[in-house]
Amino acid sequence: MTGTLVLAGTPIGDIADAPPRLGEELAGADVIAAEDTRRLRRLTVALGVQLTGRVVSYFEGNESARTPELVEALADGARVLLVTDAGMPSVSDPGYRLVAAAVEKDIRVTAVPGPSAVLTALALSGLPVDRFCFEGFLPRKAGERRSRLREAAEERRTLVYFEAPHRLDDTLAAMAEVFGEDRRAAVCRELTKTYEEVRRGPLAELAAWAAEGVRGEITVVVEGAPEKGAEELDAEELVRRVRVREEAGERRKEAIAAVAAEVGLPKREVFDAVVAAKNAARTAP
C-alpha cells in the first residue's frame, strides 16, 4: 500500500493557534519535510512534541530535487508530513510540486487545516468577502508589477496580496496609480502577533503611510473594481480598458470587442474612442 501525504497548517503568529491534530501528526509521521528545520524544532518544543520520524528540509531551493525522494517514500508506504514556516503549504510556499507529483502517482493527499493569513486578513479588512481572489506576491520589478496590476484593474472581486515590508510603499503607490487613488484597501501587519495592526483607507493614503517604513509580515487586501454602467463611461475610460487588455496580451481587435461586450456598447463606439486617442497622441506636441 502507498503512504499518505499530509499538508499541515502551522500558526501564522500565535503558537496557541496550532490545530490540535498538528502535534499528533508531527509525532506520528515517518518523514517530516520542513521549509526550515530550525523553525520546526522551535515549533515542536513549543508544542511539547517528540519527533520520531526522519526530518528533511524542503524549501524553494531544493524543492525540485527533493520531490522525487519524497514521492519514493510515499510509494513505499510512508506517512509524509509537509510543514512550512507559517500557514498552509503550497499557498505561496513550497508544496505544489509535491502535491502534483503525489496526485499523479495516485497517492492519497490530505491536510491538517490551520491558520491562513489570506482568510484572516480578508475577514479583518472590512471589505466585501463574498467573492475574492488571491494574487500572492507581485513581481519585484516595477514594470512587471505594474503589468500584473493592470491585468487585475477591472477585477470586481476583492483582491488579496502578500508583500515584503521593504517593497510595500512602492506596491501601494503602483496600486494607487493603476486601481485609482480612492480605491479602498487594508494593510494587515503581523497578524495574530503581539504588534498586530490593520491599517484601512484609500490606496493613496496607505501609500503615504507606508513611505515612512513598515515592518513585519504583510498582507494587503484591496477592494474590487466598481461596476459602472455604460452611461458612466467616457471615451478615456473605454480606451483605458482596451489598453489594460492589450497589455495583458490580447490583440486590439479582441480587446475592443471584449470591452464593448463588457459595458454594453457597440464595438464601433469603442473602436472610435481608441482611434481618436491614438490620433490625439500623434498630434500632441
TrEMBL record:
Domain Tetrapyrrole methylase: 4-207
Keyword Cell membrane: no
Subcellular location: Cytoplasm
Keywords: Cytoplasm, Methyltransferase, rRNA processing, S-adenosyl-L-methionine, Transferase
Annotated EC: 2.1.1.198
Family, similarity comment: Belongs to the methyltransferase superfamily. RsmI family.
Name of protein: Ribosomal RNA small subunit methyltransferase I
Gene name linked to the record: rsmI
